[in-house]
Model the fold of this input.
Amino acid sequence: MLVTSLGGYLYFMIFVDDFSSKTWIFFLTKKGEAFDMFKDFKALIENQTGKLIKAFRPNTGEEFTFNDFNDLCKNVEIKKEIIVSYNPQQNGAAERKNRTIMEAIRAMLHDQKLPKLLCGEAANIVVYVQNRAPHQALNNKIPEEVFTSKRPKVSHLRIFGCPVYFHVLKEERNKLEASGKERYIY
Done:
């Protein structure tokens, strides 16, 4: 059964850089949006790095095999390495990343007793944290650091679902009301 996220999304699509293991996640309301998301991702990478995508290894889903997708890859010289159906071992890094993300989403939602509609927010957090955590395949280097050559800051990270307190301005309370209100980070 598909779960619709808070943002109204049913699917997510990840891109994993083979060199750095950095992951990007995009959310889709329908699988047909994959082509536009790929074009957005391609533009993002080219603008951030000044480099071109050399190869793309999608699964055999319809969203990756139609003519517009093939034409784009051919025109910009992206080698499209389609994996054989029912043989996810050919795309092991992405398949493993997908599985790890799903396991972490499930653990986060169940641990904090949160509704499933927060799955998109949890997925974003998982990818964000994984990009800033040491990775064994990189000799314990950090994917974000390998990709950008800059060490990311992590002091702002908090536990998913932890309480935080917001200051209530004097003008918005009377003398006996609390000066802070409790909320939760999701």
The CA atoms of residues 49 and 56 lie 17 Å apart.
